[in-house]
Amino acid sequence: MLGFSLLSHSAACATLTRTMRQGALAFSVVLSLSAAPLGARAEPAAQQKPPTKPETNTTPSPVFQGAAALLPEDSITHHSAPFNGHKLAYTAHTGTLTLRDDAGKPTARMFYVAYTQDGANPARRPVSFFFNGGPGAGTAYLHLGAAGPTALSFPAGNPTDGANAKLGPNPDSWLPQTDMVFIDAPGTGWSVPTDEKTAEKTFYGIKPDAKAFAKTIQLWASTNKRLTSPRYLVGESYGGIRAIEVADALAKQQNLMVNGLILISPALDMSLLDSTANPLATALVLPSFEASRLALQHKLVPETAAHQLDEAYHYALGPYLSTLVNTPPTGEAAKAFYTEVADHTGLPLDVISKERGAPQADAHDVRSRDGRLYTLYDGTLSIADPYPEGIDNSDSPDPTLAGFGRAYGSNFEYYAATELNFKTDLSYKLLNMKVNAAWDFRGNDEPVAHQIPTLRRLLALNPTLRVFIANGYYDLVCPFASTRWVVEHIPVGHNRIGLHTYPGGHMLYTRPDTRAALARDVQAFLTP
């Protein structure tokens, strides 16, 4: 999910602030083979590698206090499963890495799950480091949603039914192409700061967050002798900003260059997501409204989708934006403009008129139509509106964050305990709103995150750096048009950035066909 999720950041981004409030508001059984397998089956005991006693991390560690003390020792399990018709043997290492301050005092235990192919050449085998966004979202979304060997699937007839979501083998796992390390940010998932009183200053901001991830990646790579492996960073939603910042921090602080970035539904520039204050941001969300309308009317088909989305993009940045930023039309001219916008978006004419042609995606009268409440994270998905008569929007739940998306948290806890043999009394923090509320979105003395200059610098300094970006047609939080606009305005390394769009929303991988298409495209990206 936003974690697939982009959650609110400051008063400067009021739209996203309201989004967060709505969601309460942004993915082998080792000990017993009698349990039904969720993903890959563990190797029988006779075939497992020595030693015969359970493998744990033997590195001496400090005595932790509080929540940090509730995390168990690392667990290492061995698995095999068929991917693309070929059986693959791999090892899962589930545990924590300890971050320390300049005096050597522990500041956090960083939870991670690493999947490595058995017998592969570590110098040539790529390794991808995954994180979600929020800020405040755990990595269970990407882990169980997109790339891990086990995936969470929702009922085909009702994709908003989180209560009946099921775990099972992921035929679209990225494991055949790359080793994978899923890392939870401090304060999310099972990554625990050792001192909550200082955690905000130490971790909850763009720069300290990137520093923490860069050190965690360096620790894992050094410990596992993977400093020479090809390296990729995979981020979703705010994870787009995080991936760019971590790549920068890795180079500056750890002397590690990355080979590529894989960004899923990324936030790249917060100013382009604040439609309350930026007419360009308002225009960039319009194509997602139009794509959602076409899909709901069964008019968006694979053969013509690219052309339809291109037309929507050029209308939004042409006639629509020029009217929006010019002197507001009045009389018949206003009526004609509002009618045109209503036709493109599928939103009621009276709503468009009231909003003066600039509909806010999170407004209740935009999200609530015909007794259904639509999610910002996929303009085609809705639930029965609990308040169809209209209410204060802050009380209107988002179907994704407050609804079916929550299934990733409980299912990850179950998966970790039964398949990875990692058991803890700590609840998995899928979405930590305290982290989100405390987040410092300032970059280099900038009021909000503005990552385009950093990305441009990375592409110039690293001539082999490649960027893969995936967006869903129906995402109203991080619209595909905003990504396209950013890519079109990067002069250096433009030919090394690939933009891929898919049927789906922010969590585009919840749709099985789209998850498979994403995996195929990532495979091509990772294949030299």
UniProtKB/TrEMBL annotation:
SUPFAM superfamilies: alpha/beta-Hydrolases
Start and end residues of each stretch annotated as Disordered: 41-61
Signal sequence, renumbered to the chain: 1-42
GO biological process, one term: proteolysis
Keyword Amino-acid biosynthesis recorded: no
One Gene Ontology MF term: serine-type carboxypeptidase activity
Keyword entries, A-Z: Carboxypeptidase, Glycoprotein, Hydrolase, Protease, Signal
PANTHER family: RETINOID-INDUCIBLE SERINE CARBOXYPEPTIDASE, SERINE PROTEASE FAMILY S10 SERINE CARBOXYPEPTIDASE
Name assigned to this protein: Peptidase
Species the sequence originates in: Acetobacter orientalis
